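Run log, item B.
One chain of 235 residues. Sequence copied directly from the ordering sheet:
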Amino acid sequence: MRLVSVNTGLPREVSWHGRTVTTGIFKEPVKRRVALRKLNLDGDRQADLTVHGGEYKAVYCYPLAHYDYWKREFIAQKTRDGADVPGRELPMGMFGENFTVDGGGPGIPEESVHLGDRFSVGTAEVAVTQPRLPCYKLGIRFGSDDMPKRFLASGRTGFYVAVVREGEVGAGDEMKLTAPEANGVAVSEITHLYVVKRYGEAEIGAVRRALRVAELPESWKQYFRERLRQAGEKS
């Protein structure tokens, strides 16, 4: 993959449905190289650290190809019902991502990027930890309450990475796979395991592999252990 844009932003207060909300979802491209540290990029912060940021969500990556998908979706919606939706050009960082990435093979990148995969980027190294589960603040960014639901249903979630080695990154850097995860659970599979109502044999097998991935946060492991218990399986 290639790093198309590095995007940062500091929390700001916005008005949403009659109340003031503090959010760090507004990101803008940075034209220079940026230091990538254990918890975030220089110049970037999260607002609510109970659900955003931290070691396992140091950087959020979103594929460039998804921009075209959403443009088509918004234009179709505007044509269909005349809604005031963002059918305009979408600037890099619109989805709140720190890294806008391109490439990753056929299909959507979430199908070929796996939990625990390690990538070198610039002078840093990162490891994939989890897909994004959107909160209402994505709706704030797009001015649409239903955007988080549509985003999750699309499967185009992007993914978070932890910082294995600090360094400097910049637009144009290659994201080179340096150590693929042996257990091979794709980001898209994790999203499926989260939303599917009932686990069959395939889901149970995938969960067991995911539980062996060191980079998967403990909160996700607890969730999956509970799902196995509900399915009558031991973790």
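Observations after the first pass:
- DSSP finds six helices and twelve strands in the chain.
- Helices lie at 65-81, 136-142, 147-154, 187-195, 201-210, 218-230.
Flagged for discussion on Thursday.
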